[in-house]
Amino acid sequence: MKYPKIPKHTKGESQDIVNMVCENSESSAFEKFRAVKERLLSVNKWHTFSEDIKAEFYLVDENDSAISNNFEIGNYIKIDIPGPGNPSGDGFDWTEIIKIQDGTNEDICPYFSFTIKPCAPPNNSKNSTAHFYTDETSNTFILRCVANCVYLEVHSRNEIENTEDVPILDKIRNKAIALGGIVGLGNLNWAAFTKGLLEPSEN
Fold first, then answer.
1. What's the total number of domains in the chain?
2. Which of 24, 70, 147, 170 is the 20 to 30 A CA-CA neighbour of 127?
């Protein structure tokens, strides 16, 4: 059974969030897998799947133009979280898709995974990471189908608050947001995210 690779954890904080649902048969589970994969690729709709997903996410290209049907390495996911926005990111926290692992057609335990990491906004001359974590941080999203169960996971590695070599307003804001994430009160609630995509609510 293949399992998608996750960046190695070497420093800072880490998280491993896993949610699952089980169906009556393997064929039903694979249908569920395909439906959840479609939701996972629909970045712009993530916040609609559960009222507990407080942040809003936008899939954009290098020109900050919205994308709805082309999920690929090099795309950006910008995040609008409740509270003060990121001054260096025009109010958003920015991440880039750096890796995609697609095992949808595997005969045993199909999977789909992608990894994002904080980055500077596209066309930013200062090239300064606009996110409350540094660009050493990563989030790997893994969707798996094992027998008659479907798993959705988020694995965060090397979570380090982005408070060095950034403007003072960024430093104050990033520290407050990062601290919230470390103690489990952050606005990027991956537990609600995984549950919401597996079993979306009627909003």
1. 1
2. 70
54-111 pLDDT per residue, tens: 899 999 999 999 998 889 999 999 999 888 888 889 999 999 999 999 999 998 999 9
Relative orientation angle of helices 190-198 and 26-41, to the nearest 10 degrees: 120
Question: Tokens standing for 83?
Answer: 């509270």
HSE toward the beta carbon, residue 80, CA cutoff 13 A: 11
Cα 104 from Cα 136, distance rounded (Å): 28
- Give residue 87's domain range: 15-198
pTM over 0.85: yes
**Is 101 among the domain residues?**
yes
Q: What's the token pair of residue 171?
A: 């430093």
Opening angle at CA 105, ends 151 and 38, nearest 5:
55
Q: Residue 185: what pLDDT?
A: 45
Give domain status of residue 7, yes or no: no
The Cα diameter of the chain in Å comes to 55
- Structural domain contains residue 122: yes
Does pLDDT of 133 surpass 90? yes
Residue-by-residue DSSP string for 99-122: EEEEETT-SSS-EEEEEEEE-PPT
Residue 94 covered by a domain: yes
CATH number of 182's domain: 3.30.530
